[in-house]
Design brief:
By secondary structure, this protein is of the alpha/beta class. The protein has helices spanning about 10-20, 55-70, 95-105, 130-135, 150-155, 165-175, 195-210, 230-235, 245-260, 280-285, 310-320, 335-345, 355-365, 370-380, 400-415, and strands at about 30-35, 80-85, 115-120, 140-145, 180-185, 215-220, 265, 270, 290-295, 300, 305-310, 325-330, 355, 385, 390-395. A hairpin with a 2-residue loop joins strand 7 (about 265) and strand 8. Helix 2 (about 55-70) runs parallel beside helix 3. It starts with 8 loop residues before the first helix and ends with a helix.
């Protein structure tokens, strides 16, 4: 059951505060959203904007207040992962990064030797100074938004960076001592062919083969999200989308090419060398707990979900008044919804889902038989397999992952 929450401090305290009071285990993950960009890319539906008022310092002031109020809910155990996304986190001034990193060290237990601390970066804003500050502050992983190595495709996406600066950014991160590096790519860009996508993969693999290169690639199909400039241009007929069959060929080429190079697919759109998987994102897909700071950042705690208000001014006013953001899209624990989401996200992972646990949770909802039948149907079509107590997709089913997950989710929502 979903309900809208008016953006008032009193309601935020009552509703999200209920989640904080209910949580008995400390959160082990933290997401921080930095909304600033120097240009709004046409395909992007994340909360980000070009800030003409130079509000970076007031933003960090408020962020430090919010982190101080969140920290007690991570007390008692060290964090396992921190992820700073955006927006363009690397656009934040170096002096403000120094402050933010010091705040994190002061307020959270970062002693876990396996802590993964990721910062998203734009190739044009990676500098030796920034990489040195991030490394000194404990950041050990950067994710660089390459999107394409083809200047024409970058122009279509409204990405304004020199493709050659991707390699430079990776090298600067490596030179600063940041040991784990990833790049994002997008395929299915209007006007793109299978041959041009293979050329992008070749450039990416050249980086993956270098000792100072990358261990992880995210390869996403272009999605036309509502209310983005890209979708508006599509509706106006300014370009045609890539043919679905060719897009499927691009995905298959991605899997084959990266596997041959030693980067295995561990999620529908993510590939890594063994041990190079993004642990923070695995926490999302496994439906673990995480805290969230910054405007539009989403949190999951004790079965509750909510999203910080997605407007910088409203977020800052709320945090400066109470220490925590006003929230929207607040959801209380719902066993059926939680199981449906676990089926959806877990099936997208190579590790799949623990069968006995899923059936037990479905049984508590009176849906065990319905879920068994849905799984049996998928197995009969050679779309799923049961291996060592886990349900996983077959190799031929990855292209159909969302549809298969939808069938399992329906079994939970409306057991027959």
């Amino acid at each position: 059951m979903r309900e809208r929450i008016d953006l008032t401090i009193d309601q935020q305290s009552r509703d999200a505060g209920e989640a904080f009071a209910t949580a008995h285990e400390p959160a082990r993950a933290l997401y921080i959203h930095v909304p600033f960009c120097f240009h709004k890319c046409h395909y992007c539906d994340f909360y980000s904007f070009v800030d003409t008022q130079d509000r970076q310092a007031p933003f960090v002031d408020a962020l430090e207040r919010e982190l101080a109020h969140l920290a007690p809910h991570a007390a008692g155990a060290p964090l396992r992962s921190i992820f700073v996304g955006g927006g363009t986190p690397s656009l934040l001034r170096p002096d403000l990064w120094t402050r933010l990193l010091a705040s994190l060290r002061a307020r959270f237990d970062l002693s876990d030797p396996s802590l993964e601390f990721t910062v998203e970066c734009n190739p044009e804003t990676v500098t030796p100074e920034l990489m040195g500050i991030l490394h000194s502050g404990g950041v050990n992983r950067v994710s660089i938004g390459a999107q394409s190595f083809d200047a024409a495709h970058l122009k279509t996406l409204e990405r304004w960076h020199d493709p050659d600066n991707v390699e430079r950014a990776v090298a600067l991160a490596s030179g600063a001592g940041i040991p784990r590096r990833s790049i994002d790519l997008i395929f299915g860009v209007p006007g793109e062919s299978l041959a041009s996508w293979r050329a992008d993969l070749a450039r990416a693999l050249a980086l993956a083969r270098r000792p100072d290169g990358v261990e992880h690639l995210s390869c996403y199909a272009l999605t036309y999200e509502p209310n983005t400039a890209m979708t508006a241009r599509l509706r106006r007929g300014e370009f045609a989308p890539v043919d679905e069959d060719e897009e499927a060929d691009m995905l298959l080429a991605t899997v084959e090419t990266l596997r041959e190079a030693g980067l295995e697919r561990y999620e529908v759109s993510n590939f890594a060398r063994p041990g190079g998987e993004c642990r923070h994102n695995l926490g999302y897909w496994r439906q673990e707990q995480w805290l969230a700071a910054g405007p539009s950042a989403s949190a999951h705690l004790a079965g509750f979900r909510w999203k910080n208000v997605p407007r910088l001014t409203d977020w800052m006013e709320g945090v400066n008044a109470s220490g925590l953001s006003p929230v929207t899209d607040f959801e209380r624990p719902d066993p059926a919804r939680a199981l449906a989401e676990r089926l959806m996200t877990g099936l997208r992972l190579r590790e799949g889902l623990p069968a006995e646990e899923m059936l037990a949770r479905a049984g508590a909802l009176g849906a065990e038989d319905a879920l068994r039948r849905a799984v049996d149907r998928a197995q009969a079509r050679d779309l799923m397999r049961s291996d060592r107590g886990r349900w996983t997709l077959t190799d031929s089913a990855w292209l159909l992952a969302d549809g298969i997950a939808s069938e399992l989710m329906q079994a939970v929502w409306r057991p027959a």
